[in-house]
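Per your request, structure below.
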């Protein structure tokens, strides 16, 4: 592919060479996507393995999500409301 890139910079490429560059580029992109999917799946397997046991890891992840999703205050009619009313 590098040879074709250099040749393309120096002069023109034939139709067959342009098709080959397109094919190789799309093949590289699909391999890269498969690699990303593979890494994502491996990370999820680790989480499921460690998370299903209600381990320290699992509770740490859940506590972090709970803190991130918490609503600490609201603005209602121009005034800020904090805490739980009730």
């Amino acid at each position: 592919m590098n040879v074709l890139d250099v040749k393309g910079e120096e002069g023109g490429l034939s139709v067959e060479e342009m098709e080959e560059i397109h094919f190789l580029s799309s093949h590289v992109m699909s391999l890269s996507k498969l690699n990303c999917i593979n890494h994502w799946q491996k990370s999820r397997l680790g989480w499921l393995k460690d998370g299903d046991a209600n381990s320290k890891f699992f509770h740490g992840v859940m506590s972090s999500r709970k803190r991130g999703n918490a609503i600490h205050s609201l603005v209602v009619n121009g005034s800020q409301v904090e805490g739980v009313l009730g």
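Residues 76 and 86 are 16 Å apart (CA to CA).

Regards,
D.
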